[in-house]
Amino acid sequence: MLSLRMILVAKMDVLFASCEVKMFIHEAACKVLAELGGPAHVRQIHDLIVSKGYYSFGAKNPCNALAIQLSRKSINVDIEYSSPDKPFYRAAPATYGLTEWIEVRAISAENLVPQEVEEDVKSILDFDSFPGTTKEQLILARIGQGAFRKSVLSSWNYRCAVTGSSLVVRASHIKPWRVCNDCERLDPNNGLPLVATLDALFDSQLITFKPSGVIQMSERIPTFEKLCLGITADMKLRREPTPEMCAYLEQHREGLIV
């Protein structure tokens, strides 16, 4: 004999199963990101929303529609860390995460640098194949790289100079290390903190920055790849470069792949 409670529960299950649970687009994105447990590209978020049936896109370009909604509901990481109306933050171009992760998962580059340098120096000292003079040169170079990285990141508040993200940020030399003199190698004006994607494009000289700070892209980057990478013509440095940095950027622009 079924109890009254069991009958009611069964009826409720049938009722909920027959009802279509509708979400707003940003709610569907929140649900997908929570399930993923980390930031994801707009295209991946869209594909999971569709495959799981969380939202039905009616737009002709659903990825663009999703990107617009995510952007509108993303915080400015330089101003605030949380907002009930803005549950997302931009971790990298066209890549979003939940703001609730920032304080938990954001890694302080200031704390990481000394430990990384210490471990690398120890590895050099432990490597018996290197003669003493070579070890000394390697250690001095590694300490210099650590100091350069820290000074570049700290001057931009440990965030990407373009996106404002604090995740997977690299301190990239504007004038390549191999052609710098000792002063240029350690000059913070010769560096930009960039998220991994932008850093790789910058080092490959597929992108650079104008004196105003606006991005300049190589014509060899196909439009489709720009969409995939999330780079747009209106991207720019979060502040205008100093005159010293402009001098380095001028040299970098000369090497832009056309």
What are the low-pLDDT stretches, counting only 5+ consecutive residues below 50? 11-21, 78-82, 103-113
- Work out the strand percent: 5-15%
Mean pLDDT: 78
Q: What's the helix count?
A: 11
Shape: globular
Rg over C-alpha atoms, rounded to the nearest angstrom? 24 Å
Strand adjacency order, main sheet = 1-3-2
Structural class per helix/strand content? mainly alpha
Q: What proportion of the residues is helical, as a percent range? A: 40-55%
What's the main sheet like?
A: 3 strands, antiparallel
Number of strands: 7
Distance between the termini: 79 Å
- Provide the succession of SSEs: HHEHHEEHHHEHEHEEHH
Total separate domains: 2
Tell me what you see in this structure.
The protein is mainly alpha-helical and 258 residues long. The protein folds into two domains: 19-105; 109-254, no CATH class. The chain contains eleven helices and seven strands. It has helices at 4-18, 25-36, 42-52, 62-72, 102-105, 109-126, 132-155, 182-186, 196-203, 223-229, 243-254; strands at 40-41, 88-92, 95-98, 169-173, 191-195, 207-209, 215-217. The protein has a three-stranded antiparallel beta sheet. Strands 4-5 form a two-stranded antiparallel ribbon. The chain is globular, with a radius of gyration of 24 Å. The model is unreliable at 11-21, 78-82 and 103-113 (pLDDT under 50).
